[in-house]
Amino acid sequence: MDSSGVVEALWDRIQARDWSAVADLVAEDVVVEWPISAERIVGNKNFVAVNSEYPGGWSIRVLRIVADGNEVVSEVEVPHDEFGVFRAASFWTVQQGRIVRGREYWTSVGADPRPEWRAALVEPM
Question: Of 40, 43, 84, 123, which sits with the fewest C-beta atoms within 10 Å of its C-beta?
């Protein structure tokens, strides 16, 4: 499987809640960083646990995947029944068919209000 296929499979398996299959795609010593919340997930078991223990009521829609060799970027939308809609831009490094590193930027849609100084220059989405 090429690098973009690994990331596509990752999101498919997370959506399916197939946690053992997720673990198969992630290196034992993976490091995934979440700069927005200043957290670092170290290790395959912790990565799977963080994802599997998240409160239910969510789904994942992959918006795009772009790859250049071993470097892959994905953008996903994650609506949650209780918490609203999240978006994530994720930057992955894939080696030998497994994710070895990631940096994800998670936020809620509309979490950062538009400042007044640019209101006349932009349109709401």
Answer: 123
